[in-house]
Amino acid sequence: MSLTPIGGRSASELRRNELRQNELCQKITTASLREQKLRHEPITCLTAYDYATARLVDEAGIEMVLVGDSLAQTMLGYENTLSVTVDEMLHHVKAVRRGVKHALLLADMPYGSYQVDPNDALRNATRFVKEGGAEVVKIEGGEKRADLIRRIIDAEIPVAGHIGLTPQSVNVMGGYKVQGKNLSGIEQLMRDAVALDRAGVACLYLEGIPREVAAMITAEIATPTIGIGAGPECDGQVLVFHDLLNLTFAPPAKFVRRYGDGAAFIRQAVQSFRADVKAQQYPADEESYHLPRETKAGLETVLDRKRAMRR
Ligand code: KIV
After folding, report:
1. Would the CB of 164 count as within 6 Å of ligand 1?
2. Could you read off the pLDDT of 184-221 as tens digits, one per residue?
3. Residue nearest ligand 1's atom 1 by CA
4. Which residues are CB-neighbours of 95 under 8 A, at least 6 positions away?
5. Nearest to 157 by CA among 207, 191, 114
6. Gap between the Cα atoms of 110 and 72, Å rounded
7. What pTM does this model have?
């Protein structure tokens, strides 16, 4: 069948664009994520920490935007995620909130904000919703967090779980190590996943575990699983935005695929600006503001008079 071009575009192209627009206009919710899992439609998630990135990620149709505590490293230059505070996180969550319209907005609860006291945990979770505009808060840890997660959900706050390689446990794990590599580790991960599924988490992040284990968990539970270093059988995939674009100043982990070289792009742009300024090539006349003709003529007259008086 031949397609009739309309205004230079084929009808099927216009239809595709229309469908894509509808997709982008749909608000993603915790319920729509579950539907995506049932439809076997892969879920996409990226981290974002500021307004501009959040807008770009949201407008590209990514379904979940996570303000991860990885911002401790990517944005603030800390060695690990342990020192970032609730106030620092909230500063970024608020900026991202202003840039996200369609995606589901999740915020990480940082280390120390939920481990010490359940009442504090509830207060902190509430701040992420009330002050930050987050729709879901994320908490690291498996079955030992199930009761706390139930309490937070009881307070009308959806919770995302996060098991496997949990960066806030770096000192206990003795480094960033793949988890669930032996039978007892696998059993523990299955218990963690089932406990959080029963507690009613909105989604479950699986980080740094063998793909076979992630596949078993994904098949076993109704909750959508979002993998990072957990293989392709998860219901969705997340990457840290700075990993995706080579902005981390460190060798990438095995699971990272770089989709662009942001560091090279920024270096090139900054060096070009520097070179242009040094060579007096920037700004050009077209990049400068000018006086209106009459003002310029008046100014010349005043300056001429001053020069004549000085002689
Ligand atoms: O902090 C973060 O960015 C995360 C993702 C890697 C899942 O927790």
Report:
1. no
2. 999 999 999 999 999 999 999 999 999 999 999 999 99
3. 68
4. 49, 50, 51, 54
5. 114
6. 10
7. 0.91
